[in-house]
Write a structure and sequence with these properties.
Blueprint: E1 3-12, H1 16-34, E2 36-42, H2 47-53, H3 59-65, E3 70-75, H4 85-97, E4 102-108, E5 126-132, E6 142-145, E7 153-156, H5 162-182, H6 184-187, E8 191-195, H7 203-218, E9 224-228, H8 229-238, E10 245-248, H9 250-263, E11 271-275, E12 281-285, H10 302-315, H11 318-334, H12 347-360
Parallel strand pairs: 1-2, 1-3, 3-12, 5-10, 8-9, 8-10
Antiparallel strand pairs: 4-5, 4-11, 6-7, 11-12
Helix pairs in contact: 1-10, 1-11, 1-12, 5-7, 8-9, 10-11, 11-12
The protein binds 3-isopropylmalic acid and manganese (II) ion.
C-alpha cells in the first residue's frame, strides 16, 4: 500500500492562503509522481477567525495537531490586530506546545536569483542556520513593575538549561555530519556556534562549553568554529562562503536568519521548519502575511514551495523533495525576479510551472 501522510494546513492571513495553495499544488504533484498519499486537513486559525470570534488557538487544536505527521503554515498577521497577539497566540504557542525545538533555516542562493551581495553567487551562499526555537528570551521569564511611572522596570531573561542546549547542539552536529557525507564542498567547512560569550558570560559560557564538550567527545572529526553574533553578521555579508552549519540560540537566530533571507534573495524564497525531531514539525515560508499584496496574485510562492520541499524531506520522501528542488531551480531561472509583482509570472503561474515540472521529472 502507498504510504500516506496526514498534514495539518493553516493558510492563515493576507497572502498566506495564496502561497499555501501553490505549495499544495506542488506537493500534490509530487505525491502523484512519487506514489505517496497526502491527507490534508485545513484549519482556519488566524486574524479573521480571531476578529470574528475572539478565539486565537484553543488548546484542543494543539491536541488535534499532535495526531498529524506534519504541519504546513502560510502566514499570520493582520493590520487590525495588535502586533504580538497572533504571533504569540498561534505561532509561538504551536512551537512551544509541540516542542518544536529546532528552527531550521537553509540559506541557499539558487542560480539566477539576485543577492544584494556584490560578487557572490550560489557557490558562496549555501549554508544552514539552526536556531534554538523554544528557549532564551522567548520563554518570557521576567516582568514589569512600577509600570507607567518614571521608575518603571522591565526584565525579560535569556533562560537556558543544559538539556535544551544539548538537544539543539545534537541536531546541529548530526546535520553537519550528514552534510559532510553528502558533498566535499561542505566537509571542508566547520560547524559554527554563534553567541555573544564575551558579554553574555553565563548563557554564552553554557552554550560554548556544551558545544566544545559534545564536539570533542562525540564528533571529534568535525571541525568546530565559534563567532560572536555581531561578528557573524559581518561575515554573513562579507564571507558567507565560510559557513555551512551555524547553530545559535533563539533571539540571535531570529535576527541572523532574516539577514540570511536577504542574502539568499529575499523573503520570496526563504523557507523554514519548526522541527521536533521526535514529534510533529511545522514548515512555513518566512515572509509575513504581506497584506498589501493579498488577493492580487502577485506574491512569490517559491518560499512556500520550498517549505513544502523541506516537509517532504523531513517525512523521508527524499526523492520527491529533490525533484521539487530541481523544479524550483529550473523555474527560478525563467523568472524575471523573485520580488512580488515583478516575477514575470503570477503567483498561480509560478505554482503551475513548478508543479508541471515535478509531474514530468
Ligand atoms: C520568525 C518570526 C517570529 C519569531 C515572530 C513572528 C514571533 O519573526 O519566525 O522568525 O520571532 O520567531
Ligand atoms: Mn523572525
Amino acid at each position: 500500500m502507498a504510504k500516506s501522510y496526514n498534514i495539518a494546513i493553516i493558510p492563515g492571513d493576507g497572502t498566506g492562503p495564496e502561497v499555501v495553495a501553490e505549495g499544495l499544488k506542488v506537493l500534490n504533484a509530487a505525491s502523484a509522481r512519487f506514489g505517496f498519499r497526502l491527507d490534508l486537513v485545513h484549519f482556519d486559525f488566524g486574524a479573521e477567525r480571531y476578529l470574528k470570534t475572539g478565539e486565537i488557538l484553543p488548546d484542543s487544536a494543539i491536541n488535534d495537531f499532535r495526531k498529524f505527521d506534519s504541519m504546513f503554515l502560510g502566514a499570520i498577521g493582520h493590520p487590525d490586530v495588535k502586533p504580538g497577539v497572533l504571533e504569540a497566540g498561534i505561532l509561538l504557542k504551536i512551537r512551544f506546545s509541540l516542542d518544536q525545538y529546532i528552527n531550521l533555516r537553509p540559506v541557499k542562493l539558487y542560480p539566477n536569483v539576485d543577492t544584494p551581495l556584490k560578487d557572490k553567487g550560489p557557490e558562496h551562499i549555501d549554508f544552514v542556520v539552526i536556531r534554538e526555537n523554544t528557549g532564551g528570551i522567548y520563554t518570557g521569564h521576567g516582568g514589569a513593575t512600577r509600570v507607567g511611572t518614571i521608575d518603571e522596570i522591565a526584565t525579560q531573561l535569556m533562560v537556558y538549561d543544559r538539556r535544551t542546549v544539548d538537544r539543539c547542539l545534537k541536531y546541529a552536529f548530526e546535520l553537519k555530519k550528514k552534510r559532510n557525507a553528502m558533498n566535499s564542498k561542505y566537509s571542508g567547512k566547520p560547524i559554527t556556534l554563534i553567541h555573544k560569550r564575551n558579554v553574555l558570560t553565563q548563557c554564552g559560557d553554557l552554550w560554548y562549553r556544551a558545544f566544545e564538550e559534545m564536539g570533542e567527545q562525540q564528533y571529534p572529526d568535525l571541525k568546530r568554529d565559534y563567532n560572536h553574533v555581531d561578528a557573524a553578521n559581518m561575515w554573513f555579508v562579507k564571507n558567507p562562503e565560510w559557513f555551512d552549519v551555524a547553530v545559535t540560540e533563539n533571539l540571535f537566530g531570529d535576527i541572523i536568519t532574516d539577514l540570511g533571507a536577504m542574502i539568499q534573495g529575499g523573503l520570496g524564497v526563504a523557507a523554514g521548519g519548526n522541527i521536533n525531531p521526535e514529534g510533529v514539525s511545522m514548515f512555513e515560508p518566512m515572509g509575513g502575511s504581506a497584506p498589501k499584496y493579498a488577493g492580487r496574485n502577485v506574491i512569490n510562492p517559491m518560499a512556500a514551495i520550498g517549505a513544502g520541499m523541506m516537509m517532504l524531506d523531513a517525512l523521508g520522501e527524499t526523492a520527491a523533495a529533490q525533484a521539487v528542488e530541481t523544479a524550483m531551480t529550473s523555474v527560478m531561472q525563467k523568472m524575471k525576479s523573485q520580488a512580488a509583482g515583478n516575477m514575470g509570472y503570477s503567483t498561480t503561474e509560478v505554482g503551475d510551472l513548478v508543479a508541471n515540472f515535478v509531474a514530468t521529472v
